[in-house]
Amino acid sequence: MAEEPSTFRASMRRVPSPVVVVTAQGPREARGITIGSLSSVALDPPLVSFNVAGDSRMFEVMEGCERFAVHVLGENQAHLAEQFAVPDLSGPEQFEAVPHVRNAHGTPILEGGSAVLHCRPHDSLPAGDHRLYVGLVVEVEERPDRGAVIYYKSSYRGVGSELRSTRLPPVNRASSDSS
């Protein structure tokens, strides 16, 4: 039996997630969406994945796009995460006050941020009420490091400082073998 969705959601809020904005030109309009499920899948070839809800407006765009862009937001861009998370905005309304350009494929490319991964759809598969999209990274647009945005405990946050860690002493195998 599956866990209650609200309990599962509350637990997952304790897991920091990267926050990116994915943009694409679909058959009818360009759209963007805030994503908290970005993951690196493979290095050879370079693949990334993320989830999109089946009832979101971005779903149709992703199903019909030939290219998309994954924007690694800088710490000063949490407002963009909020902007592209509003579900009832039209595509033009999403981009209205957002500095961006269109690349040669018509994909909206947001200004600022730490990096942009230019992708082609590679694969997708159903995942409950979402669809998991896998993108082939065809170009990485590196920008000055402006940090990153994460989602943790229901709010957007910066990455923060590096944590110091001390390596644990080696396991004494002789004593552990006897237990």
Describe the model.
The structure is a single chain. This protein is α+β, with helices and mostly antiparallel strands and 179 residues long. It has a single domain, classed as Roll (Pnp Oxidase, Chain A). It is built from five helices and twelve strands. The strands form three sheets. A seven-stranded antiparallel β-sheet has the order 3-2-6-9-10-5-4. Strand 4 and strand 5 form a beta hairpin. The radius of gyration is 19 Å and the shape is globular. The protein starts with a helix and ends with a helix. The model has no long low-confidence stretch (mean pLDDT 92).
Task: Explain the layout of strands and helices.
Blueprint: H1 5-12, E1 17-18, E2 20-25, E3 30-35, E4 39-43, E5 46-53, H2 57-64, E6 68-72, H3 78-83, H4 91-95, E7 100-102, E8 108-110, E9 115-127, E10 130-142, E11 149-152, E12 155-158, H5 173-177
Antiparallel strand pairs: 1-11, 2-3, 2-6, 4-5, 5-10, 6-9, 7-8, 9-10, 11-12
Question: Which key terms come to mind for this protein?
Answer:
179 residues, alpha+beta, Pnp Oxidase, Chain A, seven-stranded antiparallel beta sheet, three-stranded antiparallel beta sheet, 5 helices, 18% helix, globular
